[in-house]
Amino acid sequence: MSTTATMGEMANSAVEFYPKGTRGRAGGGRADGSLAGGDFGVTVQELRELMELRGSEALQKIQDGYGDTEGLCQRLQSSTTDGLSCDPADLERRRQTFGCNFIPPKKPKTFLELVWEALQDVTLIILEAAAIISLGLSFYQPPGKESELCGDVSGGAEDEGEADAGWIEGAAILLSVVCVVLVTAFNDWSKEKQFRGLQSRIEQEQKFTVVRKGNVIQIPVADMVVGDMAQVKYGDLLPADGILVQGNDLKIDESSLTGESDHVRKSVDKDPMLLSGTHVMEGSGRMLVTAVGVNSQTGIIFTLLGAGEMEEEGKEKKGKQADGAVENNQNKAKKQDGGVAMEMQPLKSAEGGEVEDREKKKTSVPKKEKSVLQGKLTKLAVQIGKAGLVMSAITVIILVLYFVINTFVVKGHVWLPECTPIYIQYFVKFFIIGVTVLVVAVPEGLPLAVTISLAYSVKKMMKDNNLVRHLDACETMGNATAICSDKTGTLTTNRMTVVQAYIGEVHHRVIPDPGQLNTRTLDLLVNAISINSAYTSKILPPDVEGGLAKQVGNKTECGLLGFVLDLQRDYAPVREQIPEEKLYKVYTFNSVRKSMSTVIKLPDGSFRLYSKGASEIMLKKCSYLLDANGEPRSFRPRDRDEMVKQVIEPMACEGLRTICIAYRDLSPNPEPEWDNEAEIVTELTCITVVGIEDPVRPEVPEAIRKCQRAGITVRMVTGDNINTARAIAAKCGIIHPGDDFICLEGKEFNRRIRNEKGEIEQERIDKIWPKLRVLARSSPTDKHTLVKGIIDSSVVEQRQVVAVTGDGTNDGPALKKADVGFAMGIAGTDVAKEASDIILTDDNFSSIVKAVMWGRNVYDSISKFLQFQLTVNVVAVIVAFTGACITQDSPLKAVQMLWVNLIMDTFASLALATEPPTEALLLRKPYGRNNPLISLTMMKNILGHGVYQLVIIFTLLFIGERMFNIDSGRNAPLHSPPSEHYTIIFNTFVLMQLFNEINARKIHGERNVFDGIFSNPIFCSIVLGTFAVQIVIVQWGGKPFSCAPLNMEQWLWCLFVGVGELLWGQVIATVPTERLPCLKEAGLGLEPGEEEGEELAEDEEEIDCAERELRRGQILWFRGLNRIQTQMEVVSTFKRSGSFQGAVRRRSSVLSQLHDVNTISTPSHVALSTATANTSPAPGNAGGESVP
């Protein structure tokens, strides 16, 4: 039965998910756990119970049940060496029995649910109410004879025989509300669909290495089945649960499941249990897959969360009731059998501590929660909304007062009961006018523009090799002021080749001929390289004849293996002779050691250690050096200094990476203490030092030049030698001779930024970072310190926005800390991708420049839209307001206003948000974080065009009937037929907006507004389409749109005035902005000088105090913001992945599907409830972390 069904049936409680007998059910295939074994000697249930144990308990269970791991492997009909056969029938049978490696996503919202959500918009509800009242009253026919007693208020309507058409306006408002709702719902639906597509794309790209039929192959994670033999290595994110069969120095970060930050050492004889969702931090090994999909530890948590989510759905979004949820669930949990508590074990600490803290912090959010742009937009929307609300309230009050005074005081009529419906109809009409003013004032199109713009950019960025995981990263990139880039693979091609070597005391500037080398030295060299490198690193024949050989695995190791091939030897026979199982001990590479060593047992029982690593580090451990005859001679510190000067520095200055290869023989008795690494890896004999070239990517220097021109500082942060780094930085153009810059090594950097107590001081960092261009021999912590230092710095008036690139597991913290983290799609480890915001699918620095371009484009698109929208807002509100106050009737009717709202909101956001980026975007400096959203130039345009439109409309309103020689439409009685006069006003207004939309394409005061207009077909088709619809509305819209058909001459005048917008735009462009001190920039970001740390709290406060004001009677507008916020939630899609920090922090790409587009914020307390239910934290064990 399907998991979804299971979830549905059992959604009664987050914890009561697996009653005792059915805990095997969530597997695929069988409903009853006991039968789930099928033709295998083990059931889903047994495997699930096994995977819940740790350490010695697990080993005991394996021994009792299966003898050993080999026995379990046989029961699963698999082999520890060859893995599964590739027989499709067998794989299918496994899927039927043990389930697929796939966690079903939460069901997306249906179209109807989205329609219902769109209907929640308060302004729309008010319009609906007004329309319904208006409809009801129009069907009410007051007795005719008293009509003159009610004054002349209703006169005129009956003469036209049009009284029966009164219902049309109400119906038309309802119709336009339906349109708005459908458009909104469709937009939400397509956004959701796009995000899901994006998610599944990320998932399909995730591959894992398994052994099948004895061959090592990569398969999509979803294709893994129970019984597979998977190869795990440094940097992997485990996609399924399994048992370690063979391991080298394997260390796992299980914090995502247990909350313990210490790395757990895994070994076949002590703790072989590997769990899905955990990260491999060191070492390598092979594991037998024992649980996949919903039966894996991660899957169990997700199904619980899924069940919990349904339960919590009705609750308040903000988790205000989290406390209640905790208590209820604690009680429920007490009634449960112990089994569930065990099952929940992993959840406990993962959530407990963090979620509770989070509740304390007033549901505060992680740094990346609210992007700069969103903050500015929310603020702006609040400002505009308040203004709109005030205007609409004043409009209604003035209309009502004027009507009452005019009718009952000036004309002296008495309010008669039978006249009530007629008067009420007037009041309803005034109310409708007030609401339309509000509707036009509130820019609901803003979130739509943001979303469309971001979604469009994300889609297009895919083509530019940027896979965006967190939507707001795209827009943040436009503000980037600094990029800290890795060297290897990002700035360089990551195709390593050995080009120089120092062997037998001779420095060979080209690869030596094998005949020139001593045979013993050559044999040692070949063995040292072949054995002491990951067996996953290989060199394969090229795909195309005559192409370069393919390098698979670690690129540095591939360069060394290539060196073996260049010496006309082969590494494969050596590896066959000593397979991976025979390696006695492996010290894998990590960022602290900066070296890798392997111990093998020689035939005579003694041990030999091969070691390779960064040359200056390795040479300190060398006491001997092989001479020209292949004999070791002593190697003293004096020799070392000379070698550094004569060999290593010259190599490094040519931009080569230097690697030293060495060995040591160890006696078997007494057997060395292998855990004491410092004693073992010392007194080595140096075989060779090689210089590896990693050429700069040809397109990088140009890309860096573009960045510098765009006001972005590029810094190189690398683990390489400082000379190598400096040489490459000069080749890339990061540093130029004669510039004022500094290049530091990690040690020196740390010395300069720390005080006497060894604490990092921000002032000290501030002295360094502005000039720092290269940080060499840096550790991941240095990278993190630098990024944090730049972000927290207050030396420059604008807060720096930092992008970081990284590929290794160790880059995780820096990628997380940065405003935008770029992970490498090809070379990057899963951990790095997990921590990143954007994945570069081609690992190329020039793709980052594209991301900057798209980011700035998003920002510009939204500014263009704002400039357009605010002009319409200002004009429409003022026209409706003054028109209503002077003529008692808004010149623009409710339905017309809604049509204007539709063009300017939905269509304009589509048209302006899909402008493609141009190279010109890279010619200006980044907008700062504190810069206002609406610049002085935009303000000038908004007010300038506003003045033009108001002058035209008021001229038409007050003397239009004389100009065109038609009947005046002013003071028309209720239900009178549409007048040509008001139709001309409406038509002119819409045409001016259309031409102003073309003006809005440029926001920096450029003159040529048509520049590149044909490169955006969407824009052209929307402008023409709107124009066509406008013709239809005017000529045939009739009563519903309050339009009378116009003749050719009138149309030409309207068009002429519309085109005048373009000419007027040129006039405005001529006025220098500096001359207009009266303009105030709106939509400011943070107040300058405000601490970054307070930014978030400040934003939260901003909204909270707005909510408080709302309780003082401003409910109307502020809830209207609701729609803006829901749509913004969509924009926050991926960002919210932080909301269940713990259990879902490791939301590997496979699992990310669950993060439903809109409800990401809801279930943060579900986990907590189930978590706290299990155990109260042991005393002294902070934050409820699991006690081992």
TrEMBL record:
The keyword DNA damage does not apply. Its main location: membrane. The chain crosses the membrane at residues 389-410, 430-456, 942-960, 980-998, 1018-1038, 1050-1071. It is an enzyme of class 7 (translocase). Residues 355-368 have a biased composition (Basic and acidic residues). One of its GO terms (molecular function) is metal ion binding. InterPro entries: ATP_Ca_trans_C, ATPase_P-typ_cation-transptr_C, ATPase_P-typ_cation-transptr_N, ATPase_P-typ_cyto_dom_N, ATPase_P-typ_P_site, ATPase_P-typ_TM_dom_sf, ATPase_P-typ_transduc_dom_A_sf, ATPase_P-type_domA. SUPFAM superfamilies: Calcium ATPase, transduction domain A, Calcium ATPase, transmembrane domain M, HAD-like, Metal cation-transporting ATPase, ATP-binding domain N. One of its GO terms (biological process) is regulation of cytosolic calcium ion concentration. Residues 63-139 form the Cation-transporting P-type ATPase N-terminal domain. It is a multi-pass membrane protein. It is found in: Cell membrane; Membrane. Keywords: ATP-binding, Calcium, Calcium transport, Calmodulin-binding, Cell membrane, Coiled coil, Ion transport, Magnesium, Membrane, Metal-binding, Nucleotide-binding, Phosphoprotein, Translocase, Transmembrane, Transmembrane helix, Transport. It catalyses: Ca(2+)(in) + ATP + H2O = Ca(2+)(out) + ADP + phosphate + H(+). PROSITE patterns: ATPASE_E1_E2. One of its GO terms (cellular component) is plasma membrane. Residues 313-368 are annotated as: Disordered. Residues 1089-1116 form a coiled coil. Its EC number is 7.2.2.10. Belongs to the cation transport ATPase (P-type) (TC 3.A.3) family. Type IIB subfamily. PANTHER family: CATION TRANSPORTING ATPASE (PTHR24093), PLASMA MEMBRANE CALCIUM-TRANSPORTING ATPASE 3 (PTHR24093:SF284). Catalyzes the hydrolysis of ATP coupled with the transport of calcium. NCBIfam families: ATPase-IIB_Ca, ATPase_P-type. This is Calcium-transporting ATPase. The lineage of its organism: Eukaryota, Metazoa, Chordata, Craniata, Vertebrata.
